[in-house]
């Protein structure tokens, strides 16, 4: 393919708004362009890479026994009302009205749509289990879209859903998906870990996230290279210490508020709680239930308190209110699409909370989705043991280390959550109606692409793994004014294309220096430069990642590249 005929707008300068390497390089190398905040266009190079990642995902999904389908982005609000998520999903859900003022959501995830299809079409246990997936654009109006493709407001996801007549059957499909995910991320040549994740108050028990190890990751994981243990520390951040109540309350009193009485009430409640050794309280703020936790650095979680300052009424939630909040899925909206802003109580914390109204301070009881390290010092837990860096892993093999991770995939046993709310049932072999059991499985396809760039780049540009690269070979004519260079290049282009090799042919009227720089930036694994020795049939063959280069005669070129 001739580069002169293609749209590959490379940039010398780093775009000002791009903080991360993947964002900078994908823009600079002409793979993507921002259309709006968190909304990107994939240019031809970007689209080629995206397709390769999608193809890996597709092959492994098919192999796991899942079947591809395609669901609409535009989803009627009624479905989301049935599941209850129309009210609980929050501002991340993009909502719109049609010309008749009917309400719709743009799919942030597809549990509702798939469940509505399955409840209508599957009536018998004989059709179960069933695994379906799609690769499609998702919409989430993220509070802070950033880092390019890593956190977009419109992005490509593979989402899969499984339906079962027993938990054993769900376990089987979950394991198949888990294995498929491992193969997918291995085939993307990523350094990743599958980690135990938090299931929130959804009632599901098993859930794993697939985390690409990267300093720019927004999650923190605890793992050991010599053990099979790995967990998202979100699993169990615990408060390790707090100061005397008076000091803990200082930040509250310093902040100006339009409603001094409210603030004083909150301060009193917190004071009281801290005195009793409690670390969190459930408040009713303008009729909204809000959880306030104390911070390890002895302050109070100011994010939540901001809402409280603005409120006109604040009271401590009653036991009944706490229970009803939890019953309504307070804070837990499922693995795909859970907003990051809501505090989620883990199952055991919920139990304790219900018993004591404002508890959750005992060993092993914990809060999740509060921001670890910012909100308090963090330890991870497993089987109610607390873990920190340098500890022996729970299975006794190796020492725990912490690392930052990018969540590229998430598998989740949903159980009967959606099927119950949306009446998805089947007849068992006795002719009796039963609620279906479900699993859901997501991969951020466009995020995975960016994660690959985070792990595969150097000072000069991207260094794509071969199977994901947009092309296999970058062919450069160093001086297009030299007839022998052009004709040898054309000849090589032909030979390579005939051999079915993907080749990007830089036939542009640019200086050699520009071509080399662009080529390094784009990161195609092998480069053939046709230059001074073209008349003898010699070209320079260079490996992008290692920088190794050698002179190769055109007659040996195919042996070298295949
Ligand atoms: P995060 O914790 O990063 O917000 P999430 O837990 O909300 O992600 P899921 O609901 O589990 O995401 O969705 C499945 C997958 O979709 C995630 O594992 C991730 O790879 C991808 N994904 C989620 N949000 C985004 C986004 N804003 N941009 C790109 N990919 C995303
Ligand atoms: Mg997730
Ligand atoms: Mg999210
Ligand atoms: Mg997440």
UniProtKB/TrEMBL annotation:
Gene Ontology CC: one annotated term: cytosol
Pfam families in the cross-refs: HGTP_anticodon, tRNA-synt_2b, tRNA_edit
EC code(s) of this entry: 6.1.1.15
Catalytic activity entry: tRNA(Pro) + L-proline + ATP = L-prolyl-tRNA(Pro) + AMP + diphosphate
Principal cellular location given in the protein's record: cytoplasm
Function in brief: Catalyzes the attachment of proline to tRNA(Pro) in a two-step reaction: proline is first activated by ATP to form Pro-AMP and then transferred to the acceptor end of tRNA(Pro). As ProRS can inadvertently accommodate and process non-cognate amino acids such as alanine and cysteine, to avoid such errors it has two additional distinct editing activities against alanine. One activity is designated as 'pretransfer' editing and involves the tRNA(Pro)-independent hydrolysis of activated Ala-AMP.
Family, similarity comment: Belongs to the class-II aminoacyl-tRNA synthetase family. ProS type 1 subfamily.
HAMAP family, alphabetized: Pro_tRNA_synth_type1 (MF_01569)
This protein's name: Proline--tRNA ligase
Organism: Terrihalobacillus insolitus
Gene designation: proS
């Amino acid at each position: 393919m001739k580069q002169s005929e293609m749209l590959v707008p490379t940039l010398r300068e780093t775009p000002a708004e791009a903080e991360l390497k993947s964002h900078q390089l994908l823009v600079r190398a002409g793979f993507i362009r921002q259309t709006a905040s968190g909304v990107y266009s994939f240019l031809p190079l970007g689209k080629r890479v995206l397709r390769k990642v999608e193809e890996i995902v597709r092959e492994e999904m098919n192999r796991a026994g899942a079947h591809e389908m395609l669901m609409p982005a535009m989803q009627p609000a009624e479905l989301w009302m049935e599941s209850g998520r129309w009210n609980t999903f929050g501002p991340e859900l993009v909502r719109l009205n049609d010309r008749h003022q009917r309400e719709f959501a743009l799919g942030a995830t597809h549990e509702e749509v798939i469940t509505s299809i399955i409840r209508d079409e599957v009536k018998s246990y004989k059709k179960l289990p069933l695994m379906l997936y799609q690769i499609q654009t998702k919409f989430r109006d993220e509070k802070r879209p950033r880092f390019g493709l890593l956190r977009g407001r419109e992005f490509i996801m593979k989402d899969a859903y499984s339906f079962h007549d027993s938990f054993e059957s769900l376990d089987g499909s979950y394991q198949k998906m888990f294995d498929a995910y491992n193969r997918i991320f291995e085939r993307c040549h990523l350094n990743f870990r599958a980690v135990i994740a938090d299931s929130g108050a959804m009632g599901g028990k098993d859930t794993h996230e697939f985390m690409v190890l990267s300093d720019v990751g927004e999650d923190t994981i605890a793992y050991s290279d010599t053990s099979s243990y790995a967990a998202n520390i979100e699993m169990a951040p615990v408060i390790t210490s707090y100061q005397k109540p008076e000091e803990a309350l200082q930040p509250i009193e310093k902040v100006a508020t339009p409603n001094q009485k409210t603030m004083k009430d909150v301060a009193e409640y917190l004071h009281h709680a801290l005195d009793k050794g409690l670390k969190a309280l459930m408040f009713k703020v303008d009729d909204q239930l809000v959880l306030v936790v104390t911070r390890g650095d002895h302050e109070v979680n100011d994010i939540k308190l901001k809402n409280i300052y603005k409120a006109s009424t604040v009271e401590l939630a009653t036991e009944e209110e706490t229970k009803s909040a939890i019953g309504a899925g307070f804070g837990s909206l499922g693995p795909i699409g859970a907003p990051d802003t809501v505090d989620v109580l883990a199952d055991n914390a919920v139990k304790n909370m219900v018993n004591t109204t404002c508890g959750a301070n005992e060993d092993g009881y914990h809060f999740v989705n509060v921001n670890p390290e910012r909100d308090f010092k963090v330890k991870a837990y497993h089987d109610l043991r607390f873990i920190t860096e340098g500890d022996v892993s729970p299975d006794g093999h190796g020492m725990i280390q912490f690392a930052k991770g990018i969540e590229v995939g998430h598998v989740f046993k949903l159980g009967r959550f959606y099927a119950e709310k949306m009446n998805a049932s089947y007849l068992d072999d006795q002719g009796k109606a039963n609620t279906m059991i479900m699993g859901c499985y997501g991969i951020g396809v466009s995020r995975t692409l960016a994660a690959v760039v985070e792990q595969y780049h150097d000072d000069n540009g991207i260094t794509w793994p071969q199977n994901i690269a947009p092309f296999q070979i970058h062919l450069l004519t160093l001086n297009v004014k030299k007839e022998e260079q052009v004709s040898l290049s054309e000849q090589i282009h032909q030979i390579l294309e005939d051999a079915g090799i993907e080749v990007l042919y830089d036939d542009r009227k640019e200086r050699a220096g520009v071509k080399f720089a662009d080529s390094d930036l784009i990161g195609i694994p092998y480069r053939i430069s046709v230059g001074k020795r073209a008349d003898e049939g010699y070209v320079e063959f260079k490996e992008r990642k290692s920088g190794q280069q050698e002179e190769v005669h055109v007659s040996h070129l195919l042996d070298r590249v295949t």
